[in-house]
Fold:
Amino acid sequence: MYSYIAKRLLVAIPTLLIISVFVFSLQKLLPGDPVLAMAGEERDPQVIEYLREKYRLNDPVPIQYAHWLGSALQGDLGISLRTNLPVLTLVGQKLPVTIQLAIMSMIFAFAIGIPMGILAAVKKNTALDYIANVVALSGLSIPNFWLGIMLILLVSVNLGWLPASGYRPFFEDPLNSIKTMLMPAFVLGNALAATLMRHTRSAMLSVLSADYIRTARAKGLSERKVVLEHSFRNAVLPIVTLSALLFGELLAGAVLTEQIFTIPGFGKLIVDAVFTRDYAVVQGVVLCTAIGFILMNLIADVLYVVLNPRMRANL
Amino acid sequence: MTTVEQVVLSAPASQRPQSRAWRKLKANKGALVGLAIITFFTVLALTAPLLPIADPNGTNWSAIRKAPSAAYWLGTDDIGRDILARMIWGAQASLLAGVLSVAIAVVIGVPFGLVSGYFGGWIDQIISRITEAFLAMPFLITAIALAAFLGPSLMNAMIAIGLSAMPVFIRLTRGQVLSVKNEDYVEGARSIGLRHYTIIKRYILPNVFAPILVQATLMIATAIIAEASLSFLGLGQQPPAPSWGSMLNVAKNYLSQAPWMAMWPGAAIFLVVIGFNLLGDGLRDALDPREA
Structure:
């Protein structure tokens, strides 16, 4: 198992290197000379030269990349122009907020998507199945920022049940933290619930038509036991691995949700950085998201092997 | 003309794959609903200059945030602009962004996928590694980063979305090519000395076209949401030009005073996206040879 994980980690290295080239190249897309923007209105030639030296802009591009990569490998992703803090510190501050949002969204997605998928498969081609499919299709088609706005309008403005925005750290005030995160988590979890429902339904349908399920029914087992113990346990494998991949997607999906509900997380960090032209932060967030995504891919692969006895035997 | 083509073309029209797929698509109610929704919005977008509607950018300071009425069917916005007119003109931006960004992704992604799958070897290794790297970056974050660095505009948003979606088409095309490149008809074409370009164009591309078409249709839905998201964040269509995403961006500031400002643009995005998703699902079923 360890050698499998090590192999997967090695495979991730070229991927990460290519991503680093992309992230580094982003700054080269900027129109105009970045130093002129940094030098202010006076554009003193000495200041310009100092900045060029400081940021190694006089070096050839491959050398600039090598320096940038060397610093990034030591955890130095640059300094935020807006806050004057190291980018990695900012990411470290914002990430727990987004992880809390992502975990709560996953809970919503599991609670809605999996039971709906099981029911749709068991009641295939009935009204219940059609309704579940329509709900899933709607969940996949609704823009989450619009859903968020509509929920604020209904739940916060009209009913006054939940706060429209704001954030309380979980370890300071758990109850209010959960309360402020309920709506954003539902909004973010909604599309995932739809994806999970579709996958659960299709995984369950393929298991429900297997011979051993027919045997279980022939033995006189209750339908509940057949569905939950014999079918779902075998259908759960692709769902678990999919969930690990979806968790990575959630980190990205949080961008708009955090913007609407004014949650000071990872997603809001990148949007604020974009508008304050804090490009080091934008680059840092893209790089960290990609690393997170690759990690979740790795976890999904490992989980697949751990949960699948046939795969384990082949290692 | 080759024997395979002769056989296909000499078959009765009703037995040709295209006719069969079309018949199946016509029988799929969901796909027809999707097609109807897309047609409706496309016609609206194309005929916007001809329709008897107000100027989408014309302000009326005596009609600020007016609720829907006979004079303003969908109400007015924060500076008295007619929301119906802006919705119709906004359809142009959304549909154009959806179609063009996917076109960018297909035009660049498919040739790379064809080359990667067909030739294999080191070309395949390089293209595959780069594709994997781009697939590891979440779609929206990549699009936001690209749009931020390229500068905010509808064209740059389309380029950003197109480039972010491109790896999906490279991987899909490559996979499809791998599954057909060892088929007898391709081997046959190779054995009679046809050039690689001819083999790819005449024998590979037509046989990998169906899944690309399905993916493109579904991707238009994703691209429309992505364009609306970028415009919502201020990175897409720039004011005063209308787009559904930028209309929502303004609307979120007036939720309690003018909720209609937020309702219509979001509903339109939802409808168009559901339309493309329904059509994409229908096309997938219709073009699936296993269900022939």
Observations:
- Residues 196-233 of chain B form the longest helix (38 residues).
